[in-house]
């Protein structure tokens, strides 16, 4: 909401020359959803401070966004921290208010542009949701700032709620003004990550432009780039690739560093195991119950053995993703005939699930409330009755090896339970016995002593089949 | 000479005749245009040329398709094509059979020369003479085959004169159609010669049985029915039991003097076969019947034979609301006639497998029954007559030592007399499934079928007729329901959304009671109840007296004695131990208030608000409300400091800026105060407060017929049993024509909301109120000025903001509220009427689906 920038350079009012803003005038500029006020609280030879105060229109923010609500959290739109924090709005305001200074132009006093001055910058308030204080320091320290942080409490009346994600940030150090502005321009949105506008290829250009001369050597350049570009992989790779001119950039390495990507690898292993089992079963028709965005389907399509592949998921959005990823619209007619995708829930009896040689149920059951498992069992094992069922679920014993996980925490916020090998196997045996299946269990991923493998799989085979 | 042709009301009429024989003219004269499907027209439709013989295959595809849709919908259909070849007629007979309609052939047998002359006059019919002669000879060969091909009615009109002499085609009702008879009825299951039990059951039902002389009507009995009632015998009158002849005599007497209907059972038909001299094995009790009939007069035997022959496979009664058949009947066969229908009525459907007793495994057609009419049947002995999907098997195995059961219709009451003895040992013990804890319907409802919820749906409700759920909304609901909602067996109700009052005309307010009260007045409502709006979360409670009550009424085992769920059907509590304590505490209050006895129930569904809001919305409060407050207060404090520092510089225009931000800071502080009202720490169940406001339903009753003061009073009685924890809702009854009362209510609201209260809910005095424009909103909320900060944002009261926010439309919200209200009441009524779970679930599902319609969430 507020940024102040002070210097004790002598004469301090040189700052106003650099900024192209008259020290005795209070000015207002228009932004897309509000205004920015610029004024100088101090303007003497010894001490000059400029203030950039955002005045965001909270109603306009909602009404002009064109976005539609998503249930309960749509309230977010009006009860919103955006007007009060330093976010991408601040960066936009900075570049609008101080564009000449940022570009390093000062026609009247060109020598000032490269003048290093002592600066003190205060930003109220900066949201830093993930990583918090540590992250802020990691971003500003390497650039040579002295960082002073004040973290604010959520509510003084409810101290048990703890601290908020908001900080008042004080930076000080000796810099060229244009560098200070560029640093702030890039690092504020990198900390906030919630951009108020669409992040497109253009943002890569802005990042490279404003990061010129410092971002390349910043130890957190990857994180800054990723966060600035809202974690959009393609853009991030593009930006980093160009930033580093391909000398030290190694995509594989970066992928492994990303926690989400590491999980991906386990997931890939899992899908390969499932796929092997499906192939070994001799199935010709396969139904992927809980197909998500269609990763397994994509693998199944490559196998000639399967002449009928069906994907079911309860999430329509996932199915839309799947049909995009699988290029359903443009698929060749022969391929297209093999594949069908529809929405369904595994707790409702569903004729469309009947008559398949095999079913894959990958990482699905842990998303069901335990008391809904009964319905799931009947729908799949009693009614749909595929000859082979390959079912996977996490092995909770392995969680002990995930350093970041707390005890009793689950791997995903939506997991309703995670089973030990014993729990899974006893459930599997009971279900098999009740419904006339035989079952074997196999680990997925590398096994560790005492805790087993990260994931576990059961292969059910119908006895009469 | 015939002048009138009779055909069954629902038949497939196949016109047979060579080109030019006048089929189209005949069809036009005697049938509705939409009833006639012409092959020529279909040729035209698929090829733009009615005489294009190359298009014949496609044309018949279209014709068959349309015909099948019409027959499925129970509409008479006429096929206008030459149909002179057996292979052309065969698929039509098949088609009629597959829809259980009777195929009728009307042959227009006109001399070749007449046809040639007619064709010659038509420029488009230039096919050669040989075509006509060929058709002619095919026709000649066909005529004698029609009966063998399966046509049930055949009319051969041998000349132009004969064709022209037909003045009308009379459509006759099927024998099974007794829709005009509305009852009341006493429907009696398989008697199997148990004469004593039958007379005792009839007596219990209020019939008087007297001996009578044999005459044309009476076979030794004269039965008087009570107040215009009639018996319906479901067949299997004979075999296995001690006195089949007397049963026949009684039933025949009653049918003759029109105090009874009777449909045939498989045993009756077998007896008929035997009496007709056919070769029949004397098994399954037939030998006994034959023995018992030995001393009867041949005249009587003849009458039995005639009687049995006259029996109609099934009846459709009471305007189509009731169907009776010996072994039941699928919906698509109701009121239809075919061999398949008759066979189904007699034997039901079997899977071809046999069970552990060597008996054929009966395919339970009733479990797939989705029809509206009630189907009452027998045939399969069951220990207890039970409803399943609006069907009921009332053969309770009297002859096997069970009971003889009658279903009183429309009362739907079961009346039984016990068998005096076991006359025949059953192959399969009668009580073989008596150990099952859940009812047949509950077992069936254990898993719902997705076909009953997905796609576009239209739900008929008592309060608002048909409510449409669009497909995209059911897509959204399926995900929410299956991922987050509780076990659907608990979910008998979801509350409707509530509309706010119209936007206030007053400057300082977005909502004010004036508009809320005016709404009701404008609807012609004179009396309303204004209830304080609680600052918590909506909670629906379903609570049983004990686990046994939940098992028997809800079919739920091992899930405790109750649930508390949110307005979207999610479990209110994530901590199951806490939930148990909570439910137990409510249950204790109910028990202590003697609720179960007073309401003659062992379960209740309550509508309530559970406080504090912070308990449920902890994450929302911290991540959203407190976060915004923290950010804003830190930032604004800094802003004000800097602005104050700047004052000394006397910059033009800065005063205004300072005022502007000072106002923001003040609004922020008000905002923080507003949300803090909703928070208090919750460490145990004691820290909650529960405010109930509707006693929605108990066994046999949905309490929407009571006014809100009744609800408030009943609830305050309950509150007295746990006053620390249960909260009665402060309320005012307001006569809208009494300005003093109206002013006092406004005053009350103002004081309430000034203290930080959320506001009030205004309801029409009667739970369900119909006004000038139909159903009136069941409730309108009027929210306090401060409370609205947490809805419209901290700065919503700034003039430049409020002027924009006042522009809001309510019509979408109001329509939604009414539709959801109607669905909610409907789901409760269906549950109370013990309808299948899917019927309840479809309403609840629809409420959830409607909630995904795009409506401003701040309303």
Characterise this structure.
The complex is a heterodimer of chains A (465) and B (859). With 465 residues, chain A is of the alpha/beta class. Chain A folds into two domains: 2-197, 2-Layer Sandwich (c-terminal autoproteolytic domain of nucleoporin nup98); 261-462, 3-Layer(aba) Sandwich (Rossmann fold), CATH 3.40.50.150. Chain A is built from 16 helices and 14 strands. Chain A has helices at residues 14-19, 58-63, 88-97, 99-102, 132-140, 177-192, 201-210, 221-228, 233-243, 251-257, 259-280, 295-301, 316-325, 333-338, 373-384, 421-435, and strands at residues 2-7, 27-31, 34-43, 48-56, 116-127, 146-153, 163-176, 285-289, 308-313, 339-343, 358-362, 388-394, 437-444, 455-462. In chain A, the strands form two sheets. A seven-stranded antiparallel sheet of chain A has the order 2-3-4-1-5-7-6. In chain A, strand 11 (358-362), helix 15 and strand 12 form a beta-alpha-beta unit. In chain A, helix 3 (88-97) runs antiparallel to helix 6. The radius of gyration of chain A is 28 Å and the shape is elongated. With 859 residues, chain B is α/β, with parallel strands linked by helices. Chain B has six domains: 4-172, Rossmann fold (3-Layer(aba) Sandwich), CATH 3.40.50.300; 181-435, Purple Acid Phosphatase, chain A, domain 2, CATH 3.60.21.10; 454-495 and 817-850, no CATH class; 503-523 and 737-809, no CATH class; 535-617 and 682-728, DNA ligase/mRNA capping enzyme (D-amino Acid Aminotransferase, Chain A, domain 1); 618-676. In chain B, 39% of the residues lie in helices and 19% in strands. Chain B has 29 helices and 36 strands. In chain B, a hairpin with a 3-residue loop joins strand 21 and strand 22. In chain B, helix 2 (39-47) crosses helix 3, helix 16 crosses helix 29 (837-850) and helix 22 packs antiparallel against helix 23. The model of chain B has no long low-confidence stretch (mean pLDDT 91). At the A-B interface, strand 3, strand 4, helix 2, strand 5 and strand 7 of A face helix 16, helix 22, helix 23, helix 26 and helix 27 of B.
């Amino acid at each position: 909401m507020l940024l102040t920038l002070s210097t004790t350079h002598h004469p301090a009012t040189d700052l106003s020359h650099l900024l192209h803003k008259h020290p005795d005038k209070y000015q207002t500029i228009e932004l897309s959803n509000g205004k920015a006020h610029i004024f100088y609280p101090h303007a003497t030879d010894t001490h000059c401070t400029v203030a950039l105060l955002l005045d965001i229109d909270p109603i306009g923010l909602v009404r002009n966004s064109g976005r539609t609500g998503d249930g309960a959290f749509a309230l977010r739109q009006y009860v919103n921290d955006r007007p009060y924090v330093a976010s991408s709005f601040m960066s936009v305001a900075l570049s609008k208010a101080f564009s000449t200074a940022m570009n390093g132009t000062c026609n009247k006093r060109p020598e000032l542009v490269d003048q290093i001055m002592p600066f003190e910058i205060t930003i109220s308030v900066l949201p830093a949701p993930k990583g918090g204080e540590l992250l802020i320091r990691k971003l500003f320290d390497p650039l040579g700032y002295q960082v002073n942080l004040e973290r604010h409490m959520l509510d003084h009346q409810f101290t048990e709620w703890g601290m908020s994600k908001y900080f008042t940030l004080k930076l000080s150090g000796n810099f060229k003004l244009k560098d200070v502005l560029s640093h702030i321009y890039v690092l504020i949105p990198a900390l906030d990550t919630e951009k108020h506008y669409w992040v497109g290829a253009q943002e890569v250009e802005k990042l490279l432009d404003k990061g010129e001369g410092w971002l390349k050597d910043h130890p957190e350049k990857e994180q800054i780039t990723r966060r600035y570009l809202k974690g959009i992989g393609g853009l991030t790779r593009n930006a980093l690739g160009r930033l580093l001119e391909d000398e030290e950039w190694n995509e594989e390495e970066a992928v492994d560093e990303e926690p989400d990507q590491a999980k991906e690898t386990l997931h890939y292993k899992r899908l390969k195991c499932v796929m092997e089992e499906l192939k070994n079963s001799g199935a010709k028709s396969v139904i992927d119950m809980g197909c998500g965005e269609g990763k397994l389907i994509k693998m199944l399509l490559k196998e000639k053995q399967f002449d009928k592949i069906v994907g079911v998921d309860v999430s329509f959005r996932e199915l839309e993703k799947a049909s995009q990823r699988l290029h359903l619209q443009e698929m060749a007619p022969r391929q297209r005939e093999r594949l069908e995708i529809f929405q369904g829930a595994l707790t409702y009896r569903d004729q469309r699930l009947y008559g398949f040689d095999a079913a894959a149920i990958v990482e699905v059951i842990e998303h069901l409330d335990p008391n809904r498992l009964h319905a799931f069992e009947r729908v799949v094992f009693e009614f749909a009755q595929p000859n082979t069922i390959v079912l996977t679920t996490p092995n909770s014993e392995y969680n002990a090896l995930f350093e970041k996980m707390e005890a009793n925490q689950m791997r995903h916020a939506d997991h309703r339970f995670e089973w030990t090998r014993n729990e899974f196997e006893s459930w599997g045996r009971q279900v098999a016995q009740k419904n006339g299946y035989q079952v074997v269990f196999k680990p997925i991923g590398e096994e560790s002593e005492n805790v087993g493998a990260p994931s576990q799989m059961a292969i059910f085979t119908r006895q009469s089949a | 000479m015939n002048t009138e042709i009779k055909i069954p009301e629902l038949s497939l009429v196949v016109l047979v005749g060579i080109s030019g024989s006048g089929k189209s003219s005949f069809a036009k004269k005697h049938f509705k245009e939409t009833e006639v499907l012409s092959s020529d027209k279909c040729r035209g439709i698929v090829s733009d040329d009615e005489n294009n013989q190359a298009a014949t295959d496609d044309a018949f595809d279209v014709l068959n398709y349309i015909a099948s849709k019409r027959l499925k919908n129970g509409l008479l259909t006429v096929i206008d094509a030459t149909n002179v070849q057996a292979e052309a007629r065969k698929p039509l007979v098949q088609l009629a059979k597959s829809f259980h309609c009777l195929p009728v052939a009307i042959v227009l047998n006109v001399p070749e020369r007449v046809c040639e002359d007619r064709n010659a006059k038509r420029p488009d019919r230039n096919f050669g003479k040989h075509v006509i002669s060929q058709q002619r000879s095919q026709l000649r060969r066909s005529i004698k085959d029609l009966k063998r091909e399966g046509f049930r009615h055949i009319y051969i009109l041998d000349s132009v004169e004969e064709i022209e002499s037909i003045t009308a085609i009379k459509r006759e009702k099927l024998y099974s159609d007794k829709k005009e008879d509305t009852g009341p009825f006493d429907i009696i299951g398989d008697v199997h010669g148990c004469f004593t039990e039958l007379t005792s059951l009839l007596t219990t039902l209020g019939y008087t049985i007297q001996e009578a002389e044999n005459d044309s009507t009476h076979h030794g009995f004269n039965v008087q029915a009570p107040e215009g009632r009639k018996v319906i015998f479901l067949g299997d009158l004979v075999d296995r039991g001690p006195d089949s002849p007397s049963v026949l005599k009684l039933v025949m007497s009653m049918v003759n003097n029109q105090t009874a209907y009777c449909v045939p059972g498989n045993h009756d038909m077998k007896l008929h076969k035997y009496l007709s001299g056919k070769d029949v094995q004397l098994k399954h009790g037939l030998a006994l019947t034959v023995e018992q009939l030995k001393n009867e007069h041949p005249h009587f035997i003849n009458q039995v034979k005639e009687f049995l022959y006259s029996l109609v496979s099934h009846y459709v009664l009471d305007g189509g609301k009731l169907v009776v058949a010996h072994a039941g009947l699928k919906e698509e066969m109701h009121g239809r006639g075919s061999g398949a229908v008759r066979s189904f009525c007699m034997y039901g459907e079997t899977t071809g497998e046999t069970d552990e007793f060597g008996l054929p495994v009966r395919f339970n057609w009733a479990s797939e029954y989705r029809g509206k009419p009630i189907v009452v049947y027998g045939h399969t002995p069951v220990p207890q007559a039970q409803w399943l999907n609006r069907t009921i098997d009332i053969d309770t195995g009297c002859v096997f030592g069970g009971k003889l059961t009658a279903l009183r219709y429309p009362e739907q009451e079961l009346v039984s007399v016990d068998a005096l003895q076991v006359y025949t040992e059953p192959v399969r013990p009668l009580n073989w499934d008596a150990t099952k804890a859940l009812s047949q319907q509950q077992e069936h409802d254990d898993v719902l079928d997705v076909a009953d919820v997905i796609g576009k749906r239209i739900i008929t409700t008592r309060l608002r007729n048909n409510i449409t759920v669009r497909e995209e909304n059911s897509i959204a609901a399926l995900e929410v329901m299956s991922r987050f909602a509780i076990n659907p067996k608990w979910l008998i109700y979801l509350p409707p959304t509530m509309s706010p009052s119209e936007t206030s005309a007053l400057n300082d307010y977005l909502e004010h009671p004036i508009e809320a009260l005016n709404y009701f007045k404008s609807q012609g409502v004179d009396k309303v109840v204004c209830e304080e709006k609680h600052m918590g979360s909506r909670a629906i409670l379903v609570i049983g007296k004990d686990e046994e009550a939940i098992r028997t009424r809800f079919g739920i085992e091992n899930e405790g004695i109750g649930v508390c769920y949110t307005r979207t059907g999610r479990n209110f509590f994530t901590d199951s131990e806490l939930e148990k304590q909570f439910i137990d505490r409510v249950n204790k209050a109910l028990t202590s208030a003697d609720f179960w006895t007073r309401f003659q129930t062992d379960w209740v569904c309550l509508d309530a608000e559970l406080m504090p809001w912070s308990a449920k919305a902890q994450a929302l409060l911290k991540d959203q409300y407190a976060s915004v407050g923290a950010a804003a207060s830190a930032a604004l404090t800094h802003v004000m400091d800097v602005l104050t520092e700047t004052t000394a510089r006397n910059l033009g225009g800065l005063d205004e800026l300072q005022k502007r931000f000072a106002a923001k800071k003040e609004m922020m502080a008000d905002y923080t105060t507003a949300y803090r009202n909703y928070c208090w720490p919750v460490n145990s169940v004691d820290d909650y407060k529960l405010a109930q406001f509707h006693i929605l339903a108990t066994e046999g009753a949905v309490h929407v017929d009571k006014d809100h003061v009744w609800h408030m009073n009943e609830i305050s009685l309950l509150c007295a049993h746990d006053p620390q924890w249960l909260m009665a809702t402060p309320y005012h009854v307001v006569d809208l024509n009494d300005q003093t009362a109206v002013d006092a209510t406004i005053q009350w609201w103002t004081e309430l909301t000034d203290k930080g209260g959320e506001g009030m809910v205004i309801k029409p005095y009667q739970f369900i109120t119909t006004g000038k424009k139909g159903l009136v909103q069941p409730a309108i909320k009027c929210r306090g000025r401060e409370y609205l900060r947490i809805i419209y944002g901290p700065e919503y009261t700034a003039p430049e903001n409020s002027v924009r926010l006042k522009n809001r439309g309510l019509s979408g919200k109001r329509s939604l509220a009414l539709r959801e209200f109607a669905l909610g009441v409907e789901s409760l009524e269906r549950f109370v009427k013990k309808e299948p779970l899917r019927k309840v679930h479809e309403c609840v599902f629809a409420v959830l689906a409607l909630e995904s319609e795009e409506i401003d969430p701040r309303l």
